[in-house]
Amino acid sequence: MFEASGDCPDSESAFRLRDNTHPLAHRRNPEPSEKPSVEFNAERGQTPSGRDYQTMTRLRTLTLLIVVAHWIVAIWHLFLAASVLPAPNNSVSWLAVVLLTLLHGGVSIALWKISDKLIGLVSIIFFLAALSVDLHEHFLHASGNNVFMVARGDWTAWFNASVFILLALESLGCSLGVLSLGGRTRKHSTPEPNSNPPKQGHTSLSSSQFNALMQTKS
Fold first, then answer.
1. CA-based nearest residue to 117, from 59, 49, 181
2. What are phi and psi of 191, to 5 degrees?
3. 168 vs 101, 175, 184, 197, CA distance in Å?
4. What is the pTM of this model?
5. Mean pLDDT score, 128-148
6. How much is the pLDDT for 37?
7. pLDDT at 144
8. At a CB cut-off of 8 Å and minimum separation 6, what does 4 contact?
9. Cβ neighbours for 92, distance < 8 A, ≥ 6 positions apart
């Protein structure tokens, strides 16, 4: 044992020796490059979770806008179909208008209320079903609604245009649904970085370091 009330210079040199020989001494004051990094966007003040939330909000808003646009074009398409189809199909079915309105309204409410996990699934189901019906009705099925068999008239070009607009909106809706599902999958598969690593504590001196300290003291 030795007394700490001895010479101050020897005590200071002993402490300097302990700091220099300590195996974790270079870790006590880490360089800026060694400090744990936390992903943070300083310009926007966003953490990764905040960016994910804003991304899902944008996808939800875009999907809702596409549903509303699809409803408007679908109603317009019904009136155009009544203009190009022969009798007795040359009139607008108001039952079809009501059903389309209820369907699109229900999907819009669902997309607004459901969690982010289900947005992509609901979008894919709705737009893929609409896309399948349109492809069958206007391209595969031999009827007056087929774009290759529709009667020529003043409204034929507008009718064909409404068909392709519906197909474009439905394809875009499916793409947003796949993008939403892909974003959720990547978020759950990527582990979040540990922004608070455990602090390194001070450990006791080894026997060789203690002997060196005693020799310096003596």
1. 181
2. -70, 140
3. 20, 11, 25, 49
4. 0.63
5. 93
6. 47
7. 85
8. 11
9. 78, 79, 82
Greatest mean pLDDT range, 24-33, 84-93, 97-106, 178-187: 97-106
User: How many Å from the N-terminal Cα to the C-terminal Cα in the chain?
Assistant: 11
DSSP code per residue over 106-167: HHHHHHHHS-HHHHHHHHHHHHHHHHHHHHIIIIIS-STTSTTTSPPSTTHHHHHHHHHHHH
Sign for the pseudo-dihedral over CA of 145, 126, 172, 175:
negative
Q: Which two tokens stand for residue 166?
A: 């519906």
Closest CA to 47 of 161, 197, 195: 195
- At residue 182, the pLDDT reads 78
Helix, strand and coil content of the chain, in percent to the nearest 5, comes to: 70, 0, 30
pLDDT of residue 159: 95
Q: Which residue has the tokens 């010479």?
A: 7
At 115, the amino acid letter reads S
Residue 208 tokens, joined: 């060789």
Q: What is the DSSP letter of 3?
A: -
CA distances 60 to 68, 120, 123, 158, Å, are 13, 9, 10, 30
How far is Cα 98 from Cα 106, in angstroms, rounded to an integer?
12
Asked if pLDDT for residue 42 goes beyond 70, the answer is no
pLDDT computed for residue 72 by the predictor: 97
Which pair of structure tokens corresponds to residue 170?
Answer: 């439905």
Instruction: For residues 64 and 56, give the distance between their C-alpha atoms in angstroms, rounded to a whole number.
Output: 12
